Amino acid sequence: MEVAIFGVGRIGQIHLGHLVDERRVRVTYLVDHEPVHETIKDLTQKHSLTDVTILKTEDAHMAIKDEKVKAIFVCTPVGQKVELITKGLQSGKHVFCEKPISLIKDEVESCYKMANDHGLTIQCGFNKRFDTSVRQLHDKIRQGELGQLRMIKLTARELPGLTWKEYLLSSGGIFIDTVVHEFDLMCWLAGERPRYITSFGHTQNQLFEECGDVDGAVILLKFSSGLMGFIESFRSVPYGYDQRFEVLGSDGMTVVTNPKITNIENWTKDSIHTSPIWQNGLTRYTEGYREEVRHFLDVVEGKCECTVKGDEVLLVHLLAECAARSMREGRVIEIPN
């Protein structure tokens, strides 16, 4: 299977690494702005890619029009995604797209409608679903091991990272940029649609404030079944990439804790020292990134249906909009059907 990658930055390089490990895949095109081409050449040497074509962004149509290319990976800044997705679908390509597909919900809906009309797949990059621990948590819930669900609590904290002004101004804000992962997990684990949402946010970083954004937020969701959901997201903590998930049911509780870099512990008479947790999402969710790519390739080959559904992606986008509105207006929002 021949594929093309559009956008060979941080996340594009992660997907490239997993694709070259797949014997069934040939990466035919790498497409990005010309200043990135030296980095791309280094990547081709690292992965021993001798027959890949490197294209400038303005020449992207060459990869899209190539009939041998069956699927494209869209890892560009958000403002470029819809055009690439649309042209890819029109040329008969299946599409893997990093979140968010667009900052405009109607554009996301149009992309999925076009994919459906053409009998093609768009898979949105919600990689956390594909982590083994998260999948096991999901399976426990579906099998009824926890009884009736009462609360789902998701913690997502990270080290200071993507905080330059240009990025923040184009990111769409904390809810569509980062909390979308937790919105996806919340609804996927709950197995139902939330009815109400309220959110609060604050920033201790002046740059976020200048960009009209926050670096910390808490969100409360209420479901028709009585289930309550709680999400906390902080984009600047000093100790690592903190991802903890807790589900409380009538018959018990299950917790997903932070995996550590190693399992080594040092014990003395005064203290116990353990390894630190992972420092960023690319290392914490290495397995999730790999498995979501494998799932997409299976979908393209017709082995299974895509488990990240379009209506789920649209619901996540709606929740991000409602959370932003709640924070802005200072009130509880009833989520539209």
Automatic annotation (TrEMBL):
UniProt cross-references to InterPro entries, sorted A to Z: Gfo/Idh/MocA-like_OxRdtase_C, Gfo/Idh/MocA-like_OxRdtase_N, NAD(P)-bd_dom_sf
Extent of the signal sequence: none
Gfo/Idh/MocA-like oxidoreductase N-terminal domain residues: 2-126
GO terms, biological process: NADPH regeneration
Keyword field: Oxidoreductase
GO cellular component, one term: cytoplasm
Domain Gfo/Idh/MocA-like oxidoreductase C-terminal residue range list: 140-335
A molecular function GO annotation: oxidoreductase activity
Name assigned to this protein: Oxidoreductase YrbE
Lineage, top ranks: Eukaryota, Metazoa, Spiralia, Lophotrochozoa, Mollusca
